[in-house]
Design goal:
The structure holds two protein chains of two kinds. Chain A is an alpha/beta fold. Helix content of chain A is 30%, strand content 22%. Classes of the chains: A alpha/beta, B mainly alpha. Chain B: InterPro entries: BPD_transp_1_N, MetI-like, MetI-like_sf.
C-alpha cells in the first residue's frame, strides 16, 4: 500500500540525483528584521547542504534563527523581515531566483513544510480531504478527481491514518492525528526537501515517538532530505543523522549525530550536550551560563564570547569566526579551530 | 443534526412566541387607558351624543371585542386567535383587520429594509475582508474608508441630507412617496423604473451609514484570521492567493459576521419607522406610526407581535443554517 504513493507521483519528478550530489544547497542565506528598535540579523551567512535521504537536525535556543531559517527557505518571511541574500538550491533550481508564482508552485512540490502548530494548522470549516485535494490541484493540472483522491488516501495510509479521515473535520481528530495529516499533506507531491518545524511540540511523549517514526518512514519512502527543527536533543539523537547547531542567527557547528554527541567541537555545542540529563550523573544538571544574546545588540566578534569559557582573548572579542571544515568533513565556526582541525593556543 | 436538537430549537421558538404574545396581551390591560372609551369620548365631544348612549355604545363595543369577559378567558381566546394569525380589527381603519393592515404594508418594508440590510451586509463584509487582506491592491483596500467615515450616521440625518441635496437642490430623484402621484401600479417596465427611482434615496440613507459597521467588524475578524496557523499552512502548501482568500480566510472570518447579521435584522424595524416616515413610504413603519397617532391599539400590538414572531423565526432559521457554515457546531 505504500507503493501507491511512489507510483502515482514518480513520473512527475525528474530522475533522482545521484547519491553523492546534494539535493539541497543553502548558500550564505541572510535574513534581517527591520524592527522599530533597530535591525536584527536573524540569519547570518547560513550555508549547508544535504543529500537525498539525509536527515538534519537543527537545534539551538529560542531566537537562534531555527524557524527563521525554515521560513526563509520557503520564502515565507513576512515584513518587517526581509531575505537579504543567499541561495537555496533544490535540485538545480535556486528558489531565491524564482518569481512569486514560481515559488508558489515550488512550495509543497519541491520543498514542503510541516508546521509547528499542527493543532491549528488545519482549516476548521473544511474537510481534511478538501484540504488535501486543493493542495494537489494547486500544483498538478489535469489530474482526474478519482486519481487525486487515490493519491490523498495513499498519503493518509503512509502516515498510518485510516482513509476515513479523508471525510472528517479537524475537530474530530486528536493532536497526533492532526500532525499526521500535516505530514501526509507534506508528502502528497513527493518533495525532495521536507522541513519539519518542531513537529512534536505540544504532543505527549508516546505520540511524539509515533510522529517521529512516521516522519522517518515517509522520508525513507520518498527519499527526501529532511530538516528537523527542534530543541529536544534526546529526540534528535534518535531521529537524525546530521546535527546542526545554531547560535544567534549563525550555524556554529554541523556534524554527524554520533560525533556531535561524543565529541562536540564548538564550546556552545559542548555546553549544550553536557547540559543534557544523563543516567550516569543523575541529579546533576549543568546549564549554560548567561542568556542568549539579543539579535538587536549582538556581542562583537564571536557572538558567543561573553558566555564562552575560552572567550576572554582579544581575537574572540573583535573578529567573527568563519566556518571551517575540519578533517572528516565536520563544520565548525570557532576561533579554537583552524583548517587542520587543531586547536589554537 | 439530530432530531433532538431540531426539536429543542423549535420548542424554543414556540416559547419565544408565547412569551411575546403574553407580554403584548397584558401590557395594554395593565394600562389605565381605555382605547374604546377614548375614541367614543372624542366622538361624544364632537358629535353631540348623549352620555348614556355613549356608555351603551362603549359597552357593546367592549362586548364585541370580548373585553367584558374575565381576564383569563380573554387570554385563552387571544392565544387561540394568535394561532390563527388573527390579531383582531383595526380601530382607526375599521372594518380592516390588523392582518390586512400588515399584509398591505409588509411588501414595502421587506422590499426596502431587508434588501438594504442584505446589501450593506454583503458590501461591508466584502470591503472589510479586502481591507484586511495585505495582498489586495491598495485602491481596493481603501475603498472601505469613506464608508467607515460615515459609520453611525443615523438614517434620519442621512435621509434629510440626501433629500436636501439630491432631491431638492439637484432634483435628480423624487422627494418621497412609493411611486409618482397619478401613476396606476401595473406590471410594466415604466412603473418599475418609477418605483425604483423612489426607492433609491431611502435605500441609500439606510445603506451609507451601516456599511461601515460591517467593514469594521469584518476587518477586525480578518486580521485575526490571517494570524491563524491554517492560513499560514495554506500558503506553505503553495495554494493560490485567491483560494486562500476564499476557502481559508473568508469562510472562517464570516462566521461571526453571520451572527451579527441575525442581530442586525432585529433592528430593521426601528429604522423602518423613521425612514418610511421621512420618505412617505407605505410600509410597516408608517403603519405603526399612524396607529400610534390614532391610538389604534390592536394594530400597534399586532405589528409588535408580528415583528417579534418574524424575528424569532429568522433566528430559528439561522440556527439551522449556522451548522452548515461551521461543522464544529454540528458536533454538539
Amino acid at each position: 500500500m505504500v507503493s501507491l504513493v511512489m507510483n502515482s507521483a514518480a513520473s512527475a519528478k525528474s530522475a533522482a540525483p545521484s547519491a553523492s550530489q546534494p539535493v539541497l544547497r543553502v548558500n550564505n542565506l541572510e535574513v534581517t528584521y527591520y524592527t522599530d528598535l533597530g535591525r536584527a540579523k536573524a540569519l547570518d551567512a547560513v550555508s549547508f547542504s544535504l543529500k537525498a535521504g539525509q536527515k538534519l537536525g537543527m537545534v539551538g535556543e529560542s531566537g537562534s534563527g531555527k524557524s527563521t531559517l525554515a521560513l526563509a527557505m520557503m520564502r515565507m518571511i513576512k515584513p518587517p523581515g526581509r531575505i537579504e541574500g543567499g541561495q537555496v538550491i533544490v535540485g538545480d533550481t535556486d528558489l531565491m531566483s524564482l518569481t512569486d508564482e514560481g515559488m508558489r508552485a515550488a512550495r509543497l512540490d519541491k520543498i514542503a513544510y510541516i508546521p509547528q502548530g499542527a493543532m491549528n494548522s488545519l482549516n476548521p470549516v473544511m474537510r481534511i480531504g478538501a484540504q488535501m485535494i486543493d493542495a494537489v490541484r494547486s500544483h498538478v493540472r489535469g489530474e482526474r478527481g478519482s486519481a487525486i483522491e487515490d493519491r490523498c488516501t495513499a498519503a493518509l495510509r503512509s502516515v498510518d491514518l485510516d482513509p476515513g479521515v479523508f471525510r472528517m473535520y479537524a475537530h474530530e481528530l486528536s493532536g497526533g492525528m492532526k500532525q499526521r495529516v500535516c505530514i501526509a499533506i507534506g508528502i502528497l507531491l513527493r518533495p525532495s526537501v521536507i522541513i519539519a518545524d518542531e513537529p512534536t511540540s505540544a504532543l505527549d511523549v508516546v505520540t511524539q515517538r509515533q510522529v517521529m517514526e512516521t516522519i522517518n518512514r515517509v522520508q525513507a519512502e520518498i527519499n527526501a532530505a529532511v530538516i528537523l527543527i527542534g530543541h529536544d536533543m534526546g529526540l534528535m539523537a534518535q531521529a537524525v543523522d546530521q546535527v546542526a547547531v545554531m547560535y544567534a542567527g549563525r550555524l556554529v557547528e554541523m556534524s554527524s549525530v554520533r560525533e556531535m554527541f561524543t565529541d562536540p567541537k564548538h564550546p556552545y555545542s559542548q555546553a549544550l550536550i553536557s547540559s543534557l540529563p544523563n543516567l550516569d550523573t543523575k541529579g546533576v544538571f549543568r546549564g549554560i551560563p548567561g542568556l542568549a544574546p539579543s539579535l538587536l545588540r549582538l556581542p562583537s566578534g564571536c557572538a558567543f564570547h561573553p558566555r564562552c569559557p575560552h572567550g576572554h582573548e582579544e581575537l574572540q572579542r573583535s573578529v567573527r569566526p568563519e566556518p571551517v571544515t575540519l578533517p572528516g568533513g565536520r563544520m565548525v565556526a570557532c576561533h579554537l579551530y583552524n583548517e587542520d582541525g587543531h586547536r589554537h593556543g | 443534526m439530530n432530531i433532538r436538537i431540531v426539536a429543542r430549537r423549535l420548542l424554543f421558538f414556540v416559547l419565544v412566541v408565547w412569551a411575546a404574545s403574553t407580554i403584548v396581551f397584558f401590557i395594554p390591560r395593565l394600562s389605565p387607558r381605555n382605547a374604546i372609551r377614548e375614541r367614543f369620548g372624542e366622538l361624544a365631544r364632537t358629535g353631540g351624543f348623549s352620555p348614556a348612549d355613549v356608555e351603551k355604545l362603549i359597552a357593546s363595543m367592549q362586548q364585541q371585542f370580548g373585553l367584558d369577559k374575565p381576564l383569563l378567558e380573554q387570554y385563552w381566546q387571544y392565544l387561540g386567535n394568535i394561532l390563527r394569525m388573527d390579531f383582531g380589527y383595526s380601530l382607526s381603519r375599521y372594518p380592516m383587520t390588523v392582518t390586512d393592515v400588515i399584509a398591505q404594508s409588509l411588501p414595502w418594508t421587506i422590499g426596502l429594509l431587508l434588501v438594504t440590510t442584505v446589501i450593506s451586509f454583503v458590501l461591508g463584509t466584502i470591503l472589510g475582508a479586502v481591507a484586511a487582506w495585505p495582498k489586495a491592491p491598495g485602491w481596493l483596500r481603501s475603498t472601505a474608508t469613506p464608508f467607515i467615515l460615515l459609520t453611525g450616521v443615523p438614517p434620519v440625518i442621512m435621509g434629510i441630507l440626501l433629500l436636501f441635496f439630491i432631491g431638492f437642490r439637484l432634483k435628480w430623484l423624487p422627494l418621497g412617496g412609493a411611486y409618482s402621484v397619478g401613476i396606476v401600479p401595473t406590471w410594466s417596465w415604466s412603473f418599475f423604473i418609477d418605483l425604483m427611482e423612489h426607492q433609491i434615496l431611502p435605500a441609500l440613507s439606510l445603506i451609507l451609514g451601516s456599511v461601515g459597521g460591517w467593514v469594521l467588524s469584518m476587518r477586525g475578524m480578518g486580521i485575526t484570521i490571517q494570524g491563524e496557523d491554517y492560513v499560514n499552512f495554506a500558503e506553505h502548501k503553495g495554494l493560490t492567493g485567491r483560494r486562500i482568500f476564499r476557502d481559508y480566510y473568508l469562510r472562517n472570518a464570516l462566521l461571526p459576521q453571520v451572527t451579527g447579521l441575525a442581530l442586525a435584522l432585529g433592528t430593521v424595524v426601528t429604522s423602518a419607522v423613521v425612514v418610511e416616515g421621512l420618505f412617505g413610504l407605505p410600509g410597516i413603519g408608517t403603519a405603526l406610526n399612524l396607529a400610534i397617532r390614532a391610538n389604534d391599539f390592536p394594530v400597534i400590538y399586532g405589528i409588535v407581535l408580528f415583528i417579534t414572531i418574524a424575528i424569532a423565526l429568522l433566528m430559528t432559521l439561522l440556527e439551522f443554517v449556522y451548522p452548515l457554515l461551521d461543522p464544529r457546531i454540528r458536533a454538539n
